[in-house]
Write a structure and sequence with these properties.
The chain is mostly helical. It has three domains: 46 residues, no CATH class; 174 residues, no CATH class; 29 residues, no CATH class. It contains ten helices and two strands; from the N terminus they run H-H-H-H-H-H-E-E-H-H-H-H. It has a two-stranded antiparallel ribbon. The protein starts with 10 loop residues before the first helix and ends in a 12-residue tail after the last helix. 36% of the residues are buried.
């Protein structure tokens, strides 16, 4: 910003670059005070949050291939986000061009390697909530599609997708996680495959699983765009009166937290 002090910017020039400048309207107005740029009201309109974001249908196969290869760059959660948003950058433009995809590398390993929610589930929820947004009519909001994705992840024998040019040749075993958690999902697979965490097979398994999630995510989004999507997503908290997943016993055993009895 210091470089433009004392210079004038045309409204058209400013607006053309506004989508790539991640600063607030108030800060922008203060920084360019006295310049012939935008009024406070105009700046506020330029930078106002617009949500949900536009979506056009994508090819699930292409999306999965992108996700598979991106796993080797930014891992599970970032790869799911990238597989969808890099395509929408080309097909839609903003706000996807300004979205910091690589920042979501922290979803690796169940968020910073802590083995909590699988990064693919977190990435899928980022995508569904930005594209579908809050509940406006009925019950088909982004959060419920995200919940449906997590249930599908838990119930499905994965990976379901095989890339055209896999980095690891040969068969990769499939397992059902029965949980949306990275620790359980990866741990079950490692036991079934008899492979260590650092093995090429485990890495490729997670890359293929990431591609599998991206594939199914785009299937649901395409159905939603066509107006044929009917969510099966639920909020487990409503059933258990505490934030939860449907399978607690793998981690907690008999020490499952129980909430106070809900008042009638």
């Amino acid at each position: 910003m210091g470089k433009i002090i004392g210079r004038k910017l045309s409204r058209r020039r400013f607006l053309s670059g506004a989508g790539t400048v991640a600063i607030g309207a108030a800060g922008m107005t203060a920084a360019v005070s006295g310049l012939d740029v935008l009024s406070h009201a105009e700046a506020k309109a330029v930078f106002a949050e617009k949500w949900p974001w536009p979506y056009v249908k994508l090819d699930p196969e292409k999306t999965a291939e992108i996700a598979y290869n991106e796993w080797y760059r930014i891992f599970c959660g970032g790869a799911v986000v990238s597989s969808v948003f890099t395509q929408l950058r080309e097909k839609v433009g903003e706000p996807y061009k300004s979205f910091p995809i690589d920042a979501f590398i922290f979803l690796e390993g169940g968020i910073a390697g802590w083995g909590t929610i699988c990064g693919t589930n977190a990435g899928a929820n980022i995508v569904t909530n930005l594209i579908i947004g809050p509940r406006i009519s009925g019950s088909e909001d982004g959060m419920l599609m995200g919940s449906e994705m997590m249930q599908w992840y838990s119930d499905t024998s994965m990976p379901t997708f095989t890339p055209k040019e896999p980095r690891v040749k040969g068969e990769i075993p499939k397992t059902v996680s029965d949980s949306p958690l990275c620790h359980i999902s990866v741990g079950r697979w490692m036991k079934a495959a008899n492979k260590e965490l650092t093995s090429p097979e485990r890495k490729d398994r997670c890359a293929r699983l990431t591609a599998s999630v991206a594939y199914h995510l785009v299937e649901l989004l395409n159905n939603w765009k066509s107006g044929t999507y009917k969510t099966t997503g639920v909020m487990p908290a409503k059933a258990y009166n505490i934030q939860s997943q449907h399978n607690c016993t793998d981690c907690h055993g008999t020490n499952v937290p129980t909430p106070p009895t809900a008042k009638a």
